[in-house]
Amino acid sequence: MDATRGVVVEQDLGYAVAIFEYAATETNQISLTEGDRIKIVSKQAKSRGWWKGELRGKTGYFPCDYVKEEKGATDGNSA
User: What residues does the SH3 domain cover (predicted)?
Assistant: First the structure.
């Protein structure tokens, strides 16, 4: 959180790969297909079971239990 403006600053927290399909049920969520590689931008909602990420040009929440976090991969060129 940027204390001077009171806003949450999104950051690059690495990537996760979808291990299950997920169909978004709200407009602030993203759908996942098994094998999708999601850029993680926030883990603040993890206690509720959700992370925020970017996929196919859309940013939204997805269930963190449906993905496996990649270790050590922080750029878009890693597989």
Answer: 11-72
β-strands 15-18, 58-63: how paired?
Answer: unpaired
pLDDT value of position 73: 53
Contacts 24+ apart (CB under 8 A), 30-37: 30/55, 30/56, 30/58, 30/59, 30/60, 30/61, 30/62, 32/62, 32/66, 32/67, 37/70
What type of residue is 54? E
| Best CA proximity match to 64, nearest among 25, 28, 27, 32 | 32
Q: Is the pLDDT of residue 8 over 90?
A: no
Give the tens place of pLDDT for each residue, 26-56: 999 999 999 999 999 999 887 799 999 999 9
